[in-house]
Structure formats: structure tokens, C-alpha cells
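User: Just a sanity check before I run the rest of the batch. Below are the C-alpha cells for the first item. I only need the designed sequence back.
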């Protein structure tokens, strides 16, 4: 492991839904403060990935909804459950508008 990453917390954002895209959007924002990886797995597959990571295990997992609740009871590291708000959606739309000619909300 590089010396500059050793002092930063290792955070895995676990997401298989729309949260995954939100995690990807914000990952770069925190690169200087944390080692943030987005893991596109859910439930039992995410548990297996976390528990088999050995020396590369995260210090904390961030996940949403039922996936977060599932992980919280099944892994031996802290799990932070998040719930995106309307503000998060508006922020994502504003960012998309700045970066693209058209925006679609489904």
C-alpha cells in the first residue's frame, strides 16, 4: 500500500441501484481525504467480497436501504446506512446539466 493512502480511511460504497451512480459521482470529491471504492454488489455477494478482502478490507461500508440493513447484520465492520434526499437528486441534476447538453430524469 502506498504511504499516502495508508493514513486515509478505506471506505467501500456498496450499491446496486441508483445509489451506485451517486457514489461514483462523489468518489472523486473525497480522493484526498479517503480511499473510496464503489463496489457494485449487493446482499450476500457483497458480504462475501467484504469478508474475503483480508488486508484490503474497508474500514467502513456505506450502503443504502435494505442492502445496508442486510450488510449491517452480517459483516464485522461498521456499516453506515444512508438515505439520499431530494437535495441529493437536485444536486445530481445540476451537475448533469453543467456537464451535458441534455438531462433525462427517469
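Assistant: Here's the designed sequence for the first item:
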Amino acid at each position: 500500500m502506498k504511504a499516502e493512502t495508508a493514513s486515509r480511511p478505506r471506505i467501500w460504497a456498496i450499491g446496486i441501484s441508483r445509489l451506485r451512480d451517486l457514489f461514483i459521482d462523489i468518489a472523486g470529491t473525497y480522493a484526498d481525504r479517503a480511499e473510496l471504492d464503489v463496489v457494485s454488489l449487493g446482499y450476500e455477494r457483497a458480504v462475501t467480497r467484504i469478508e474475503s478482502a483480508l488486508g484490503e478490507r474497508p474500514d467502513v461500508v456505506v450502503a443504502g436501504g435494505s442492502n445496508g440493513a442486510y450488510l449491517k447484520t452480517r459483516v464485522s465492520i461498521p456499516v453506515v446506512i444512508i438515505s439520499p434526499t431530494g437535495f441529493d437528486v437536485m444536486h445530481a441534476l445540476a451537475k448533469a446539466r453543467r456537464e451535458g447538453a441534455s438531462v433525462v430524469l427517469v
